[in-house]
Amino acid sequence: MTQDTHLAFASTAGTTSLEEVNSTVAVPKNAGFWRTLFAFSGPGALVAVGYMDPGNWITSIVGGAQYRYLLLSVVVISGIIAMIMQYMAAKLGIVTQMDLAQAIRHRTNKPVGFMLWIMTELAIMATDIAEVIGGAIALNLLFNIPLVGGVMLTVLDVFLLLLLTKLGFRKIEAIVVTLIATIFGIFVYLVALSQPSIAGIAGGLVPQAQIFHHDQLLLALGIIGATVMPHNLYLHSSIAQTRAVNHDNPDEVKEAVRFSTWDSNIQLIGATIVNALLLILGAALFYGHGDQLQAFGDLYHALSNNEIAKGIASPILSTLFAVALLASGQNATITGTLTGQIVMEGFIHLKVPMWARRLITRLIAVIPVVIAAVVWGGTEGALDNLLVYSQVFLSIALPFTMIPLIWFTGSKKVMGEFVNPLWVSILAWISAIGLTILNFQLVISIVQQFIHAV
Keywords of this protein's UniProt record, alphabetized (predicted)? Predict the structure, then answer.
């Protein structure tokens, strides 16, 4: 790629993506592999959060509880798709110096850009609803705080995020990594206690024909549909630019792409392992009780029920589960706010203070959760149902995010020498088309269930 090509493309962005943190993290020059990797590590963790948020938990655990290790291969395939998409998102940001929202806005007119902004905002709010619900339920389970009260308390994390931004972007990354490590450690411990079948796990890693049976396929769609989320692609294309890279030096750009890919893949492998642990936990502890585990509270209480948790149940395990849920919700809260700022500035060139952006997004997300909690008597089951329905927006928005990303990174005109290899483009298009079909099937299924329930 010539320097003139990507500079001409980048100059149309108007503003730098996340200007307050863009190019603020120094990277060593001519350093060894591990030192350089450490400098580039961090953005991948913020992205990985979206692949292990509360929206993934129920589908993975119930998948194990109902079909043992059968759907483990689906978790792995979802992780591979995530790696491909996030690699392209980071590369787009580093090479063009534009985030995905800026790149799309540059190639579309104002009305189309506005429509895509609204759709993306709805997806971010749908994601935020999942975090509100996860946080409120965790507070209820840990401290017996009423669900409505817990929902309102989640608004206070606005101030938490403001505090974190004062510490610098590297500190935010460190806190997110700590929370991820907490989640990972808890589930490794729970799975170790459950003594899963090693042979069953090995067999589950191989795709089997039973996956395509109706009920199994529906749950597989849920696992895949809850994995790749549109906001993560916008986020990664922006925060990959937080590293100080001299774009006049093609070797530095090439190094940034290489180490950002390492960072992303390492973190996403970790997220895939967490999702696999969730499914393994469901298979090892709760197989045969899948119909009784449709809500977070069901899982919490099952871990202290010896009849279900097969002799290892204890209140400590239940508490650890709730702590992991709370950590998951707080993690995704941080990334959701950053993504909201990225798409607002990229699509409609509007800047607002971060505290206002966070407060508005959270209040809008809180409203439907409070209504659901009040109308249905503040029951956790109602909130779990709302969490499932919120995934509809994510499913609808996904192709409008994936398709432009694949097109940009597969264009020689846009990416020059950094254009996707042919095999990457083929896998990406197959993934995009397949995920679009699967997500719309999931939407249809959810709508049918809703109509039947009404």
Answer: Cell membrane, Ion transport, Membrane, Symport, Transmembrane, Transmembrane helix, Transport
- How far apart CA 384 and CA 251 sit, in angstroms, is 49
Q: Please state, in angstroms and rounded to a whole number, the distance separating the CA atoms of residues 83 and 71.
A: 19
Q: Please, what CATH class does the domain formed by 3-453 belong to?
A: mainly alpha
Tokens found for residue 294: 């449709």
Contact indicator for 231, 402 with CB cutoff of 8 Å: no
For the chain, domain boundaries:
3-453
The reply to whether the predicted model has a pTM over 0.90 is no
CA gap 435, 427 in Å, rounded: 12
